[in-house]
Amino acid sequence: MLGKKLVTAQKRGETRALCLGLGMVACSMMMYFFIGITIVPFYTKSVWTTETVCKVLKANIKDRVFCPNSKGSEDEEIFPYPCLQVWVNLTASGQEVMLYQTEDTLERNPKCSYVPDKLENSKEVKARIETIASNFKKYQTFPCYYDPGGTQTNVILSRLYPAKGLLFAFLWPTLMFTGGCLIIVLVKISQYVSVLSAWQ
């Protein structure tokens, strides 16, 4: 009687472990799919792939401009902010080009090098932009990214999704997938050993 209870408990444990492993594999596949349709397209579409050194030529703050927080936004979401324009000398070609913070900055407002968030108030925005401008004047040489194909003549300070960030995004679903597969394999081995022991 006790042996039957132990076998039943063992089978229940194996079933739960098998469900856990299958659930981990399914969740990891969903994460792979989500990353594949969100992050990977932005990474592959970015033409600013080559890193070089940029030297600041001028960093000016112009009059306030109006820019929507996102494409297709309503009028109440349009907010004013000081327009920072940073021009740099591209070491790779020696050209004078405009610098943008990321790829998204160029899409939101091609006239300004930095686009603040709408949630910030006007004083914080002004202080932050002045700080950024002073930092560019202080640290005049820094790494930046340019388009080696020449499609875009401007440069960006940092990529939204660099190669390291993409690898880090795939790290967690890979670990979950590996753990789920390992649990399934261990359960199958345990079942095989149990059947073999019972047969002997």
UniProtKB/TrEMBL annotation:
Species of origin: Calcarius ornatus (Chestnut-collared longspur)
Biological processes, Gene Ontology terms: detection of calcium ion
Domain of life from the UniProt record: Eukaryota
Topology with respect to the bilayer: Multi-pass membrane protein
Keywords for this protein: Glycoprotein, Ion channel, Ion transport, Membrane, Transmembrane, Transmembrane helix, Transport
Claim: Transmembrane is one of the keywords in the record: yes
UniProt family annotation: Belongs to the KCNMB (TC 8.A.14.1) family. KCNMB1 subfamily.
A GO CC term assigned to this protein in UniProt: voltage-gated potassium channel complex
Compartments, as annotated in UniProt: Membrane
Principal place of residence: membrane
Record carries keyword Nucleotide-binding: no
Name assigned to this protein: KCMB1 protein
Segments passing through the bilayer: 20-43, 166-187
UniProt xrefs under Pfam families: CaKB
GO molecular function, one term: potassium channel regulator activity
